[in-house]
């Protein structure tokens, strides 16, 4: 019995020790928990609050309103309309939600396609479902209350004038960033800076309360262009019709204000609708008036004549013998259409004599004509800042390059854009003062730079008026009631290291009205097909219609009143 009692005592002692061990361990655990709670409520309170806020407070971007692009009269060319973006958090998306079928219908999807898209991206936290939807559709999406589906507000660019001004204005991408034209060139100032606000969100990411604004959105700056939308519409209509009639590859026209150098209209064909680019062809994107180069041909001859007068060797009545209708220069033959015999400087322009301007340029210093062409802006950047604008080619020629000097005198061997060509005629309309072309409205016209002595340009302009007369090559450029001065150009297109025999560029550049020049207008039609391809037959009529429309739209008074018809009174 004594041994049994001893065993019971040992068992009781062991149980007591275990109980005390458990009690002590529990006490330690309670103490540790109490200590941690005390620490959390004292030392770590700020940390816990920040962690809680991080799971409920969010900083959201406030989209900035992109600046408006308008014409010189305030007519909108590019505006931003409020839209919305529908996106999903696939990880939290409720694929069993009853509103998912309706959501798919609103987004133009099939329910099983939407579920498959969310399931396939289950590990992602962000997925665009549809961008730039209407605010009304966005409200319907939000009212469904589907977990993990969100709506953000943003803006979509809209272009009221559509294809008429798109080559100048350009367009933005879906994120509102400029991609072409002036939207790209002035993207930084147009887009502005987005703002930020602090919001409270629930566990599924829905915004339930706006806490405060952290930074206001800074809207983009507005941009006012120099173009007059009325003139732009009219010029676009005429160019589009002409390209279709002549079945040309393309065409461009530029209208400049002769007093300021401002671009009042700049149009191209083919064009495109920036509001619907679903069928956009890359070839239609080019602003051909600023990016496409061509040899200007006979439109350069007025500058050769001006250079001859500036040299002091010639006056407008000086006689040049162009017989027998051709001239040999270093083994090359330069021809006129026929033997014009003796011509004054005026006659050289009237008849567009290659032989006449060749003799003039070879009688002057090797850089005389080239320097004047450079001073009027050929071979140089116009400074418009337009993306992709070309500078053209105006080569330096030495005295031994007689053939190249001769061909330059009548517009071959150099290249230019249509805007450069139009800009070069501004000094002819402004008594020898050059003002650079600009695409932005000017509150104060530039002082300009004199590139011809006073009196030379008006004389050359009067010579150019004979081109529109009965003996000239540009009779179809006439505008009823107005004096017009201009020059035609018909250039063989470069092809395979030479010139194509059956492909032409038809050009006409002119000034109107002569008595008080208001517009400089340049027209170029690329590869017209059919029997009419001369500049006087293709480009000159377009000039006439554009000039006539611009003069009427801007109320420019006539300077060529028709002579009263003679009448006889019957005597009895």
Automatic annotation (TrEMBL):
<dbReference type="InterPro" id="IPR050515">
    <property type="entry name" value="Beta-lactam/transpept"/>
</dbReference>
<protein>
    <recommendedName>
        <fullName>Peptidoglycan D,D-transpeptidase FtsI</fullName>
        <ecNumber>3.4.16.4</ecNumber>
    </recommendedName>
</protein>
<keyword id="KW-0378">Hydrolase</keyword>
<keyword id="KW-0812">Transmembrane</keyword>
<dbReference type="InterPro" id="IPR001460">
    <property type="entry name" value="PCN-bd_Tpept"/>
</dbReference>
<keyword id="KW-1133">Transmembrane helix</keyword>
<comment type="similarity">
    <text>Belongs to the transpeptidase family. FtsI subfamily.</text>
</comment>
<keyword id="KW-0961">Cell wall biogenesis/degradation</keyword>
<feature type="domain" description="Penicillin-binding protein transpeptidase">
    <location>
        <begin position="251"/>
        <end position="546"/>
    </location>
</feature>
<dbReference type="InterPro" id="IPR012338">
    <property type="entry name" value="Beta-lactam/transpept-like"/>
</dbReference>
<dbReference type="Pfam" id="PF00905">
    <property type="entry name" value="Transpeptidase"/>
</dbReference>
<keyword id="KW-0132">Cell division</keyword>
<comment type="function">
    <text>Catalyzes cross-linking of the peptidoglycan cell wall at the division septum.</text>
</comment>
<dbReference type="InterPro" id="IPR005311">
    <property type="entry name" value="PBP_dimer"/>
</dbReference>
<keyword id="KW-1003">Cell membrane</keyword>
<dbReference type="InterPro" id="IPR036138">
    <property type="entry name" value="PBP_dimer_sf"/>
</dbReference>
<feature type="transmembrane region" description="Helical">
    <location>
        <begin position="20"/>
        <end position="41"/>
    </location>
</feature>
<keyword id="KW-0717">Septation</keyword>
<dbReference type="Pfam" id="PF03717">
    <property type="entry name" value="PBP_dimer"/>
</dbReference>
<feature type="domain" description="Penicillin-binding protein dimerisation">
    <location>
        <begin position="62"/>
        <end position="210"/>
    </location>
</feature>
<feature type="active site" description="Acyl-ester intermediate">
    <location>
        <position position="298"/>
    </location>
</feature>
<keyword id="KW-0573">Peptidoglycan synthesis</keyword>
<comment type="pathway">
    <text>Cell wall biogenesis; peptidoglycan biosynthesis.</text>
</comment>
<keyword id="KW-0472">Membrane</keyword>
<dbReference type="InterPro" id="IPR037532">
    <property type="entry name" value="FtsI_transpept"/>
</dbReference>
<keyword id="KW-0131">Cell cycle</keyword>
<keyword id="KW-0997">Cell inner membrane</keyword>
<keyword id="KW-0121">Carboxypeptidase</keyword>
<keyword id="KW-0645">Protease</keyword>
<keyword id="KW-0133">Cell shape</keyword>
């Amino acid at each position: 019995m004594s041994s049994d009692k001893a065993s019971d005592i040992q068992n009781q002692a062991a149980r007591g020790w275990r109980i005390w061990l458990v009690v002590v361990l529990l006490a330690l655990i309670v103490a540790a928990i109490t200590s941690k709670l005390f620490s959390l409520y004292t030392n770590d309170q700020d940390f816990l609050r920040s962690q809680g806020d991080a799971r409920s407070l969010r900083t959201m971007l406030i989209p900035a309103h992109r600046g408006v692009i308008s014409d010189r009269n305030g007519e909108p060319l590019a505006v931003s309309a409020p839209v919305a973006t529908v996106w999903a958090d696939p990880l939290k998306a409720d694929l069993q939600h009853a509103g998912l079928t309706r959501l798919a219908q609103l987004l133009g999807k099939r329910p099983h396609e939407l579920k498959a898209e969310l399931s396939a991206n289950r590990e992602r936290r962000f997925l665009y479902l549809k961008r730039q939807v209407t605010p009304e559709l966005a409200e319907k999406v939000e009212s469904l209350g589907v977990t993990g589906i969100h709506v953000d507000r943003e803006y979509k660019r809209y272009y009221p004038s559509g294809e008429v001004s798109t080559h100048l204005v350009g367009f933005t991408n879906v994120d509102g960033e400029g991609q072409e034209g002036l939207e790209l060139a002035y993207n930084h100032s147009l887009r502005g800076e987005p703002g930020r606000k602090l919001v409270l969100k629930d566990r599924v990411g829905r915004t339930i309360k706006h806490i405060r604004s952290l930074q206001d959105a800074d809207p983009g700056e507005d941009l006012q262009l120099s173009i007059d939308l009325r003139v732009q519409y009219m010029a676009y209509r005429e160019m589009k019709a002409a390209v279709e009639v002549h079945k040309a590859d393309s065409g461009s026209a530029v209208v400049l204000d002769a007093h300021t150098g401002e671009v009042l209209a700049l149009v191209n064909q083919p064009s495109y609708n920036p509001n619907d680019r679903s069928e956009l062809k890359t070839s239609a994107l080019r602003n051909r008036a600023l990016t496409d180069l061509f040899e200007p041909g006979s439109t350069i001859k007025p500058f050769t004549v001006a250079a001859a007068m500036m040299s002091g060797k010639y006056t407008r009545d000086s006689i040049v013998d162009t017989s027998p209708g051709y001239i040999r220069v270093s083994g090359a033959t330069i021809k006129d259409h026929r033997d014009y015999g003796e011509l004054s400087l005026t006659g050289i322009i009237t008849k567009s004599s290659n032989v006449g301007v060749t003799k003039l340029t070879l009688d002057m210093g090797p850089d005389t004509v080239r320097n004047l062409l450079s001073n009027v802006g050929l071979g140089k950047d116009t400074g418009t800042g337009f993306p992709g604008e070309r500078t053209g080619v105006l080569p330096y020629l030495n005295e031994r390059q007689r053939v190249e000097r001769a061909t330059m005198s009548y517009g071959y061997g150099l290249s230019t854009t249509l805007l450069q060509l139009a800009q070069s005629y501004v000094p002819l309309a402004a008594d020898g003062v050059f003002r650079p072309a600009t695409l932005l409205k000017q509150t104060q016209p530039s002082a300009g730079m004199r590139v011809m002595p006073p009196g030379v340009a008006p004389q050359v302009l009067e010579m150019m008026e004979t081109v529109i007369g009965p003996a000239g090559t540009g009779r179809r450029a006439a505008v009823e009631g107005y004096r017009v001065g201009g020059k035609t150009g018909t250039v063989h297109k470069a092809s395979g290291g030479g010139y194509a025999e059956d492909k032409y560029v038809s050009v006409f550049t002119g000034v109107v009205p002569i008595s008080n020049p208001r517009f400089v207008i340049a027209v170029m039609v690329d590869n017209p097909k059919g029997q009419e391809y001369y500049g006087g037959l293709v480009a000159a009529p377009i000039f006439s219609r554009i000039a006539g429309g611009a003069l009427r739209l801007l109320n420019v008074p006539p300077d060529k009143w028709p002579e009263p018809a003679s009448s006889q009174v019957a005597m009895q």
